[in-house]
Amino acid sequence: MGVRARLGGWLRERRAAARRDEGMTTSEYAVGTIAAAAFAAVLYKIVTSGAVSGALESVIGKALDAPF
What is d(CA 34, CA 29) in angstroms, rounded to the nearest whole number? Predict the structure, then answer.
């Protein structure tokens, strides 16, 4: 069996697999959306906490006061 024949078989197999996988269903979109919203809420809470806010202000303040 030649290289071309093996490559052709592999390509046919990949195309068939791609046709079987049609993407996410509605329930998968819903779970993904809920997970993204939960992650955003946790990230917002972390970034707006006192310790992180103070650290960010300190870093920005040092960057703005840096001599050129």
Answer: 9
